[in-house]
Amino acid sequence: MRGGEVMCFSRESFGQLWSGMFKPIQQLLVKGESSCLACGKMISICVPGYSELCAPCYSSIPWITLPRCWTCGRHVGCPDCSRKGGVQRSFVMNRSSVAYSASMRQWLAQYKYRGHESYSTVLSRMMGRAMEQMKQELKSQRITFDGVVFVPLSEARWRERGFNQAEELAKGAALVGWCVGRGRLPLLNLLMRSRHTDKQSFKSRNERLRNMQGVFQALPDAPEQLGRVISESRRTFLEHGAVIRLLLVDDVYTTGSTINACAGVLQSICGELGFGGEIYSLTWARS
Ligand SMILES: [Zn+2]
Ligand SMILES: [Zn+2]
What we know:
Largest sheet: 5 strands, parallel
Shape: globular
Bound molecules: zinc ion
Helix content: 40-55%
Strand order of the largest sheet: 3-9-8-4-5
């Protein structure tokens, strides 16, 4: 192959919608020579849908193809969910696209802390896989969502970073929608975070719960926002019965305590409107 020539090979066409979302960026990159977002080497083979990455970096993505835990979407055995009398979850299920490996940790850090924005679309596209997975698993139940919500950052973190990675991922999920043909889902900003929490993974279950207490609250206009969306989609809503279904998005699912705390608040917002709330979680990575 001549230098700078770009060769494309065909792969199974997963997440077509997601790659379609970012086509202009993709075409732009394929036309000229470009270097891999992750390793910086020149891209000689273009991976359809992931033109920002070189083939070796793309192949190293630890996709979760078969979640072993139905509830939390973990790819390995899950004592948390299977334990009798174990964790009470406020959400129905979580699905993640990739295992949170050392390289995935690096990619996220490049995005979150170094402000490497190009990762935003790559990560969104990657998360599309988890959405597709969830959709397949829920197919027989004909579940649709009333809106997409995201885990908020604390005010201080927001000021520091200038963006919320969970919100960016949620935008992607809302754009694609849930059912093909239904179009985009409403993106709702319903939650606020009163303070930042320390790393949860090294804490015991009780410490984690205590640490999360009161961290998330509903924004003052949350019931009004959600009420408006529900009344606009009343026809669909009536088909659901008296349950509001929300898709909650975050970057990484570690212990589930963040998702669980947010889901609890979302349920009470639904309750305030006189409905039940079913919360489904979508995260880019599962540790
Ligand atoms: Zn690379
Ligand atoms: Zn589990």
